[in-house]
Design a protein that fits this description.
11 strands; 21 helices; single chain; 60% helix; two-stranded antiparallel ribbon; alpha/beta
Length: 519
Amino acid sequence: MNIKRAKEEIKNTIEAYLLKDAYGSYEIPSLRQRPVFLMGPPGVGKTQIMEQVARECKVGLVAYTITHHTRQSAVGLPFITDKEFGDETYRVTEYTMSEIVASVYQKMESTGLKEGILFIDEINCVSETLAPTMLQFLQYKTFGNHKIPEGWVIVTAGNPPEYNKSVRDFDVVTLDRIKLIHVEPDFEVWKAYAYEHDLHPAVISYLNTKPENFCRIETTVDGKFFATPRGWEDLSRFIQIYERLEKKADRDVVGEYIQFPRIAKDFTNYLELYYKYRDDYQIEEILSGTIRESLCNKLNRAPFDEKLNVIGLLLSRLGQHFRKVADQGDMTELLMEELKKINPENDREKEDALMADEMEYHGAKEDSMRKRLSELRTLWKDSWDNKRKAGLINRREDYLSRDVERILFKYEEALRNGDYQDDQSSWDKIRELFAEETAKYEKYLSDAGKTLEYAFDFMEAAFMDGQEMVVFVTELNTGYYSVKFLEEYECERYYQYNERLLFKDREDELRSRIDNLGK
């Protein structure tokens, strides 16, 4: 299965393992909870999805690469103690707590999360001395004499033997005690992820034209050559930083991430063309509504890979507009939900129920609204600080939460510096300031809508409704932020072309069925 399907399977497994009965016991006892074993090539995202799963399931995460551990750190160190058996005292050997088990308890203490995921990477690459310990771990959920706490689900990962000479094959006894999931690279799934996480458009458009280079691992007489999804993502981030520093990534830089010389050379050439097309076709000018006939004719006669590159440039810039809309919209929604808690127009009984567990209510004094706003901001900050500490939020959520905190402080300062006689006048000022955020969202939505319409103008002028338009609309359907935007913005031409695309897909499917019937 692809990494997206594997992620859903892990989430479903965690949900099933953590389900409790009416008496608070787990429906599936810990001993019967098979560890999950993700088997797949390097760099496909096995490790990365664990952070996402932990955040989305709101559980803790402790991650270890087992090849970094000795038997002593995994099992614990021996020490001698006295034990009485019957009337006799004996010197016996016991073990300190395993570093791994101790880390689970530390995570529970530091985050307050009593349930979580213990992720062990490269588990099928353990040394010969650790192999029996791993078998015991997988069978009985223990390291040495210390048991993994109940409520902690074990997920492991490893590479097939063709990618790692250190791999040890599990025997049937071990395989019969795990949930084995084979993970395969899937470019379409990765592309959706790439759009959502704003990876470099040159990387996305290059792999769109040459998806066979997305994940390539070869062993030849000259050595091992590989290009992995992880390599493309890391390269993408590095190129973005290089651009901010006004530097360009050359073949040597690309080869540090894409360790497949032919592919590294090919992408470096593509990246040079990407920058050239960005300058030649003046993407910003197009999305501002200036469409030159000479550029349309030039692109119409260009090779198909050049057309795809320019379409990728258009989609990339559109994506930045779409993300800006999404960020402002989500931030405004979060802010509105918080401000509802101090709305004086609410019924007092409802307000008290809403705020009782969160803040002390101050009477209708001259500055009570500002105090309540200050307490609201403090509670917001504390709540999100705890989420950060527990690893329960991603980077975008982190930025949005800080924006809300910043705006709440801005409102607080406005009340402090103004002359507001009562809660209602203070609330009116807050509403006035909040209206500015709403107006900002509407402006971003309108501006993004205009850029999309201008993009369609250019695409129609250059290609009419040819296959290039199919590519453009298909990519709009793939992008996370473009899909989110199109749920809010009515773009008639998008719906027209999308309907034609769906009709063509159905027509092709029917033709395929008819052809198969004739065989």
